[in-house]
Specification:
173 residues, alpha+beta, two-stranded antiparallel ribbon, 8 helices, 46% helix, elongated, binds zinc ion
């Protein structure tokens, strides 16, 4: 699940490498250089290990092709990509993304809901299993409430919080 940052850089949530299931931070920016299109491609963040593994020289790429290996999904010809360090803006964005876990923890309950939404991963919140859709309703409601109502809503038990959030943001569906 990729996330597009304001600069256009795509990474996994929390600033992670886009390679599937890779837990490493993205530290290298890779951009496809299209010869035929003038529309700029989104740069993508990888960890250094996956850049080495996925982006091979043309000779290696051809050999794998000839050997009948399925190249498309796992290996890419390095010459078709720009591979570089993150620029200043991207570095700042990546640092912010890496701090997400700490911010969620510091926020308490609403941070737990934000985490579920951002990671698209249902989780147990005080004994209640909360899915992404419900957590999204909680975040939307929380962020739209006045300070006073927000305190009241946050004081509710999890199940009630979720119920109220769905009622008020989705009309009870
Ligand atoms: Zn990686």
């Amino acid at each position: 699940m990729r996330k597009t940052l304001k600069s256009g850089l795509q990474v996994k949530p929390r600033g992670r490498c886009v390679d599937s299931l890779c837990p490493e931070y993205a530290t290298v920016v890779v951009t496809f250089q299209s010869r035929y299109s003038t529309a700029p491609e989104n740069p993508v963040g990888y960890c250094a290990r996956h850049v080495e593994k996925r982006f091979v020289d043309d000779e290696t790429y051809r050999q794998r092709d000839n050997a009948g290996a399925v190249t498309g999904r796992h290996v890419f010809p390095r010459s078709s990509y720009e591979i570089r360090e993150p620029n200043e803006v991207e570095s700042a964005e990546l640092a912010w993304e890496r701090g997400a876990e700490g911010r969620w923890k510091a926020e308490g309950r609403i941070g737990e809901y934000r985490r579920i939404v951002e990671l698209h991963a249902a989780a147990d919140v005080d004994g209640v299993f909360v899915d992404g859709w419900t957590a999204g309703a909680c975040v939307a409601l929380h962020d739209s409430l006045s300070e006073r109502n927000r305190v009241r809503w946050l004081a509710m038990p999890t199940a009630e919080q979720c119920h109220v959030a769905i009622q008020l943001t989705m009309g009870g569906k």
